[in-house]
Amino acid sequence: MVRPLRASDREEVKRILEAADLFTPPEIACALEQVDIFLHQPQQPDYRLMVVENGQGKIAGFMSYGPTPLTEGTYDLYWIVVSLSEQRKGYGQLLVKWLEEKVQEEKGRLILIETSSQPKYLGTRLFYEKMGYHEVARVRDFYRPGDDRVIYAKKLNKERGRK
Amino acid sequence: MVRPLRASDREEVKRILEAADLFTPPEIACALEQVDIFLHQPQQPDYRLMVVENGQGKIAGFMSYGPTPLTEGTYDLYWIVVSLSEQRKGYGQLLVKWLEEKVQEEKGRLILIETSSQPKYLGTRLFYEKMGYHEVARVRDFYRPGDDRVIYAKKLNKERGRK
C-alpha cells in the first residue's frame, strides 16, 4: 500500500497539494521540485518520495523524506500530505510508521519534522504529537514575523530495530 | 575588498577549506557544491558566494549565504571561513558586516547561522556572539549523538536600514 512514487503519480500529487488549501504557490513548487529530483535523478540520495494507495489503488497521500545532509543517522520528513477526501482514515499514520521502520532498517536514530506555528497547521502539529514527536526547538519569526519554525523530533528505539 | 566569487577562485577556496582542519570531506564537498551552483547556475537565487581579499589581492576568506527558502526576509549564512594565515585580522567581521548591510538593502530582517556544538567550533561560536548573534534554538544530537545543531540569529535593526 506504501510504494515509491512513479512519474505517472505526479499530476495527482500536484492536485492533492493544491486542493489541501494549506500551501502557498512557492511551497507547492518546493514540494514538486523534490518530486522531480526524485523522478529524474535516480542516483541522488537526498529526497525519497513515497505514496500510499487506498483500497481502489488511488493515491491517498504522499511523503518525502531523506537522510539529513552532514548528519549521522538523522532523517528529515520533509512533506507529508493526505488527500482531503482520504483524511482521518489512518493513511498519515501508515506513512509515518512506514518511515520509522525504514529509518530503523537503515540504522537511523532520529527523525525530524519542521512545521510552522500558524494556526492552520494546528491539526498537523497534533498529528505529529499523536505519533510521538515532540517540539525540541523553535526559531521565532522564521517564516515571517509571528510565524515560527517549529522543529519536532522523535528518537527511535534501538531495541525495536533488533527484532 | 569584498567581491563575488569567480571561477578562478575555486581552487584557493578549496585549499582554505582543506587547510582549516575543521571540516570533514563531506562538509568540504557540500561547501564546494554551493560554489559550483553559484558559478554554473547564474539564475539560481539560493546560494551567493562572496570572497574577501587581503591587501595583496589574495583571498583571505569567503562566505556563502542566501535567502532562506519559503521565508519572508530571513537569510542564512551557510559558510564563512577565513584562511588560517589571515585569521584575527578582521576579515570575518568584514564579511559579516557586508552581509548585514546587503540583507538590510534587500529589506531582510533576520539572519540565521547554524553550527555544531563540538568543542572545535568554540572559537566560531564566540565569533558569532561577538558579532551580535545569539543562540535561539538547539536540536540535541542532530549531527551525531552528543553533537548538537546550534542555531544563532540576529534581528536586523530596521532603523539602520533607513539611513
Number of strands of chain A: 7
Oligomeric grouping of the chains: homodimer
> What count of helical segments of chain A does DSSP give?
5
Average pLDDT metric of chain A: 95
Low-confidence runs of at least 5 consecutive residues of chain A: none
Task: Tell me the fraction of residues in β-strands of chain A, as a range.
Answer: 25-35%
Which chains share the greatest interface? Answer: A-B, 27 and 27 residues
Q: What would you report as the Rg of chain A, rounded to the nearest angstrom? A: 15 Å
Q: Order of SSEs of chain A, N→C? A: EHHEEEHEHEEH
N-to-C CA distance of chain A: 23 Å
What class do helices, strands and sheet pairing of chain A give?
Answer: alpha+beta
Strand order of the largest sheet of chain A: 1-2-3-4-5-7-6
Summarize the amount of helix of chain A as a percent range: 25-40%
* Main beta-sheet strand count, sense and barrel state of chain A: 7 strands, mixed
Q: What would you call the shape of chain A?
A: globular
Please give a handful of descriptors for the protein shown.
alpha+beta, seven-stranded mixed beta sheet, homodimer, 33% strand
What is the topological layout?
Two copies of one chain form a homodimer.
Chain A: E1 2-4, H1 10-19, H2 25-40, E2 48-53, E3 59-67, E4 74-82, H3 91-105, E5 110-116, H4 122-130, E6 134-144, E7 147-155, H5 158-161
Parallel strand pairs in A: 4-5
Antiparallel strand pairs in A: 1-2, 2-3, 3-4, 5-7, 6-7
Structure description:
Two copies of one chain form a homodimer. The first copy, chain A, contains five helices and seven strands; from the N terminus they run E-H-H-E-E-E-H-E-H-E-E-H. Chain A is α+β, with helices and mostly antiparallel strands. The first copy, chain A, has a seven-stranded mixed sheet with strand order 1-2-3-4-5-7-6, sandwiched between helices. In chain A, strand 6 and strand 7 form a beta hairpin. In chain A, helix 1 packs antiparallel against helix 2 (25-40). The first copy, chain A, starts with a strand and ends with a helix. The mean pLDDT of chain A is 95. Chain A binds chain B through residues 24, 26-27, 30, 68-74, 109-110, 112, 136-145, 151, 153, 155, and chain B through 24, 26-27, 30, 68-74, 109-110, 112, 136-145, 151, 153, 155.
